[in-house]
Amino acid sequence: MEGLGDILRHELIGLDIEIVKAKNKALEGIEGKIIYETKNLLHVETKKGVKKIIKDQVTIRLRFNGKMLEINGKLLALARSTILSKHAPEKLSWKFSS
Asked: For the whole model, what pTM was predicted?
């Protein structure tokens, strides 16, 4: 069964979303398509242009595999941070030799 864990690992670019809750109430109700994503931001193409949304300040609703999901942006930011750290090259670890 696919669900929250799957969407947290899934590519979000191309998905339609709606912001259902936000620290900044002016963002609530924004709908659009995710066109770019970073660890902390979603770039959403709306009818009024591209909006940059800080993930940990919103709750979004989206359709994934035929189901409507409501996701706290803090989970998205945390999941992306974890995924990036797991895929970081080992050579980034510092070792000192004498």
From this structure: 0.75
**DSSP of 55-97, one letter per residue?**
GGGEEEEEEETTEEEEEEHHHHHHHHHHHHHHTS-GGGS----
Residue pair 41/20 in contact (Cβ under 8 Å)? The answer is no
Burial of 59 (0-12, 13-18, 19+ CB in 10 A): middle
In what helix (H) or strand (E) does residue 18 lie, and over which residues does it extend? strand 16-22
The pLDDT averaged over each successive group of 10 residues in the chain (98 residues) is 60 92 96 93 96 95 87 83 52 42
40/66 Cα distance (integer angstroms): 26
List the one residue out of 45, 43, 41 whose CA is nearest residue 31.
Answer: 45
